[in-house]
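Q: I'm writing up a methods section and want to include an example of the input and output format. Could you take the sequence below and give the corresponding predicted structure tokens, formatted cleanly so I can copy it straight into the document?
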Amino acid sequence: MGVKGRFGLVVTSGAGAVLVLTAGCAGGGGQGELASGKSGAVTITPGNGTASVKPDGPIEVRVADGTLENVTVQGQGATITGKMAGDRKSWRSDRTLTPGTSYTVTAQARRDGKASTATSTFTTLKPEKTLSVVDVTPNLKGEKVGVGMPIMVRFNRPVTDRAAVERALQVTPEKPVEGAWRWIGSDQVIYRTETYWQPHQKVRFNARLAGVPAGAGVYGAADVDETISIGASQITTGNIGKYHMTVVRDGKKLRTIPFSAGNGQTREYTTTSGVHLLMEKGNPVTMVSPGRKEGDPGYYKTVVGHAVRFSNSGEYTHAAPWSVGAQGSSNVSHGCLNLSPANAKWYYDIMQRGDVLKLTGSDREVEWNNGWSYWQMSFDAWKKGSALT
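A: Here is the clean output for your methods example:
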């Protein structure tokens, strides 16, 4: 049991001197005593012992007499920071709190040259449902990506209040460029820049999601931080009607490669024009004719080497030793870019996810949502998909 000590402090056995705080109702403030012995000098909201505090409610500290010197918030959830008023009479947290978490607020004040400390410990509401980030792409350890790479974020459930969640998402490149989020579903949002990223830099993605009200009683569960490495600027341009593509890295031409593209006999067998991004690679990859089973006209099942995907409609660059004679002079494929084994391996080895592949010369334009072909959409149109416009 504590006994009343000098300066209005309560001295507790084994715990030293701590400032007296009275528990308030849910979300209420607790009053403390300064070392001068005058009560009511420091108020912390939520008050000591308060339970089920809404995660999107602020923490506030006020001093009636004297000034605040420092305020800290400790807890197992998100790191909570805040802003001190210019007159140092008040402090307010500047972000949401982690649900289902215990926090301790410590306020240091000074009056008439005498220092004191006040504390308040409270717990936040534990909601029935929370919103979490289940995937951020790109996220492969040690990966460097191309200058066209978007940032793709997927959540564990549909987002009702998209604006609140989008405000919690921050993208910070070392070399600034304008960008915007676009929702492409109830549980997925994608960030694209107005122009390509500058090469050779780090981009930080931060979702300050903990405690964000996502709608329908759902709160963000936890913050997410990712650092994305932008590699060299590798841009490939090719003309389907001229059967060649040229690879440029950081402004320097690396190689011109002959290819054989789709034969164009059907839309399916026509290689798409437009701005594509390289998505993934595999060696080997089994190519199967879409929508056909064995025995159907046009059915095929072929294993190819050093394949690099650039759309969701089955388009790859890959090794095609059977069509080397046509590469550079005619289009005979089912829609892929057939390359010689040596060129296919070279392209496979240097590719980065998010590298740009810009093709012209066919009458089939790639759709903006076919794979990662988001650069097919103008930036003005892209921004209209934001919840904040």
